[in-house]
UniProtKB/TrEMBL annotation:
<dbReference type="Pfam" id="PF01261">
    <property type="entry name" value="AP_endonuc_2"/>
</dbReference>
<keyword id="KW-0479">Metal-binding</keyword>
<dbReference type="GO" id="GO:0046872">
    <property type="term" value="F:metal ion binding"/>
</dbReference>
<protein>
    <submittedName>
        <fullName>L-rhamnose isomerase</fullName>
    </submittedName>
</protein>
<feature type="domain" description="Xylose isomerase-like TIM barrel">
    <location>
        <begin position="49"/>
        <end position="245"/>
    </location>
</feature>
<dbReference type="InterPro" id="IPR036237">
    <property type="entry name" value="Xyl_isomerase-like_sf"/>
</dbReference>
<dbReference type="GO" id="GO:0019324">
    <property type="term" value="P:L-lyxose metabolic process"/>
</dbReference>
<dbReference type="InterPro" id="IPR050337">
    <property type="entry name" value="L-rhamnose_isomerase"/>
</dbReference>
<keyword id="KW-0413">Isomerase</keyword>
<keyword id="KW-0464">Manganese</keyword>
<dbReference type="InterPro" id="IPR013457">
    <property type="entry name" value="Rhamnose_iso-rel"/>
</dbReference>
<dbReference type="GO" id="GO:0019301">
    <property type="term" value="P:rhamnose catabolic process"/>
</dbReference>
<dbReference type="InterPro" id="IPR013022">
    <property type="entry name" value="Xyl_isomerase-like_TIM-brl"/>
</dbReference>
<dbReference type="GO" id="GO:0008740">
    <property type="term" value="F:L-rhamnose isomerase activity"/>
</dbReference>
Length: 386
């Protein structure tokens, strides 16, 4: 039997970090469809993120992306967030949108470009000092398009050297979270293509370096929960970038494409003690055609639902079935939890937290969407601008 009070208590402590860029305009390389009311500044992105937290109660931090969220005064930005009930979260670096990075950034064959990339990462740590953020999130677009284009091994050496310099700069309580992605924008080799490469670098760097699992960064059919179980077992799972994919790195709402996979991942998190540790649960999504704030609220709710189901797994019944080799019973125990409708439980949890039971309805009733459409007129909307 699972202890419902403990499940509820755990759900109340959940923290899902939302990404600043999800509040801005986004699109594919074919078209960015602008939406009304989209933030023009990092401050307005935080205002929107604060609404997500206000109605869900479990989205207390916001990830920044540098330079998309560049401001003069980061302490003032942190204060802006805190005045609205949220905090600044991971600092995401960007070494992929500059002409100098055509052949890579930290792995580039030219030491001058590598220096520029490492300096940017060091600047991100300076920003963390000002914002109080503990996590530096690194994703490198580095790679090659053609066999022979560059030396695969040397690129790994350059990567190790650059990461080591940044690692040394980290202060107490700061971490480096290294993300992997199997392809794109490079198509032949990618310098951090998989969890094994990320893990190898993090292991050498030391305890402040951990791996980030972006759920959209795997080949179709990859067993992501196995990766999660392995990284947790090794103490190297730093966090998640949650999103859904049907084809490539689609960045759709988490839990939209494959809620069963999300449940299996969350079960391994709960099983491996990751839910109560310092594993960061971040969203990394783009809302190209749907309204952004309610889409982010929905995403947070999808993570909550998967977590609730994972917490409901009768672990002792499962262990007994596994130990006796009862394949069908073991599978049935897991599926019982997955097939539970946890929405009533989550409505209760929200009411006990002093929230409305339906965050999307509460957001709609708040009038925030109408307010930002009326007020955010003129200026330049935030976004990729592709
Ligand atoms: C790369 O596709 C990525 O997932 C990285 O997490 C970035 O930080 C994010 O997208 C936004 O560029
Ligand atoms: Mn990501």
């Amino acid at each position: 039997m699972t202890d419902l009070a403990a499940v509820k208590a755990a759900l109340k402590t959940q923290a899902v970090e939302t990404p600043s860029w999800a509040y801005g305009n986004s699109g594919t390389r074919f078209k960015v469809f602008a939406q009304q009311g989209v933030p023009r500044t990092p401050q307005e992105k935080l205002d929107d993120a604060a609404k997500v937290h206000e109605f869900t109660g479990v989205a207390p931090t916001v990830a920044l992306h540098i330079p998309w969220d560049k401001v003069e005064d980061y302490s003032a930005l942190a204060k802006h967030a805190e005045d609205r009930g949220v905090k600044l979260g991971a600092i995401n670096s960007n070494t992929f949108q500059d002409d100098d990075y055509k052949l890579g950034s930290i792995c580039h064959p030219d030491p001058v470009v590598r220096r520029k990339a490492v300096d940017h990462l060091l600047e991100c740590v300076d920003i963390m000092d000002a914002t109080g953020s503990t996590d530096l999130k690194l994703w490198f677009a580095d790679g090659t398009n053609y066999p022979g284009q560059d030396d695969i091994r040397e690129r790994q050496d350059r990567l190790a050297e650059g990461l080591a310099e940044v690692y040394e700069r980290l202060g107490d309580g700061q971490r480096m979270l290294l993300e992997y992605k199997f392809f794109e924008p490079a198509f032949y080799t990618t310098d951090v293509p998989d969890w094994g490469t990320a893990y190898a670098h993090c292991l050498k760097l030391g305890p402040k370096a951990q791996v980030v699992v972006d759920t959209g960064h795997h080949a179709p059919g990859t067993n992501i929960e196995f990766i999660v179980a392995t990284l947790l077992r090794e103490g190297k799972l730093g966090g998640f970038d949650f999103n859904s994919r049907f084809y490539a790195d689609d960045d759709l709402m988490v839990g939209a494409a494959d809620p069963f996979q999300l449940f299996r991942i969350m079960y391994e998190v709960v099983r491996g003690g990751g839910f109560t540790s310092e594993v960061a649960f971040m969203l990394d999504q783009c809302h190209n055609i749907e309204a952004k704030i309610p889409a982010i609220i929905r995403s947070v709710m999808n993570v909550q639902e998967a977590t609730a189901k994972a917490l409901l797994v009768d672990r002792s019944a499962l262990a007994a079935a596994q130990a006796s080799g009862d394949v069908l019973e073991a599978n049935a125990v897991l599926m019982d939890a997955y097939n539970t409708d946890v929405r009533p439980l989550l409505r209760e949890v929200r009411e006990e937290m002093g929230l409305g039971p339906d965050p999307i309805a509460a957001y709609r009733a708040s009038g925030w969407a109408e307010k930002i459409i009326a007020e955010r007129v003129g200026g330049e909307q935030a976004g990729w601008g592709a």
